Amino acid sequence: MKRNYQGVVERIKEIALAHPQVASADDGRELEFDVTKKNQWPRMFLRTDSSDILGGQGSAEITVTFTMLVMDRLNTKRTNVIDASNVTHQIMLDILATLNSEQLIRVEDGLTLNPLYDYHDAQAAGWDVTITVYLENELKCYPV
């Protein structure tokens, strides 16, 4: 995997899809809830928040901050919120553990998982977390 923006996005989606309970993984600006589409659940969604460059030429640390959501559908009476939250919590922990073991994130940075109940009135519940991913740390100058 190339540790650039595109490589990291693709790797995170691969990690999510390798999880036996994750049915779909996507990235973009907003999680798609179009009921006419055949979205598969549970879903992992990755939204880019920002990118930071710390340091200077040759010694910069380049990061990208993402919000990662893991969601599952709720039944029509929404009686399975706890079950959906439990399943998606474990999926989230498994994905984070893999990202940490591959040194894409640093768990010691401190992560906060936030519960999502009836997300955007879309009959889905789960968790989100903000993660900081570390890219290749070289900042090169190009001739002008």
Structure characterization notes:
With 144 residues, the chain is α+β, with helices and mostly antiparallel strands. The protein has one domain (5-134): 2-Layer Sandwich (Alpha-Beta Plaits). It is built from two helices and five strands, in the order H-E-E-E-H-E-E. Strands 1-2-3-5-4 form a five-stranded mixed beta sheet, covered by helices on one side. A hairpin with a 6-residue loop joins strand 2 and strand 3. The longest helix is centred in the middle third of the chain and has 21 residues, at 81-101. The two termini are 30 Å apart. The model has no long low-confidence stretch (mean pLDDT 85).
Question: Which keywords apply here?
Answer:
144 residues; Alpha-Beta Plaits; 2 helices; elongated
Helix-residue proportion: 10-25%
* CATH class descriptor: Alpha Beta
In terms of structural class, how would the helical and strand content be classed?
alpha+beta
CATH architecture: 2-Layer Sandwich
> What is the straight-line distance between the termini?
30 Å
The tally of strands reads 5
Helix segment count? Answer: 2
**What is the strand content?**
25-35%
Shape designation:
elongated
Q: What characterizes the major β-sheet?
A: 5 strands, mixed
Q: Mean of residue pLDDT? A: 85
Which residue ranges are poorly predicted, with pLDDT under 50 across at least 5 consecutive positions?
none
Query: What is the gyration radius calculated from CA atoms?
Result: 17 Å
Helix and strand sequence: HEEEHEE
Per the CATH scheme, the topology name is Alpha-Beta Plaits
Number of domains: 1
For the largest beta sheet, what order do the strands appear in spatially? Answer: 1-2-3-5-4
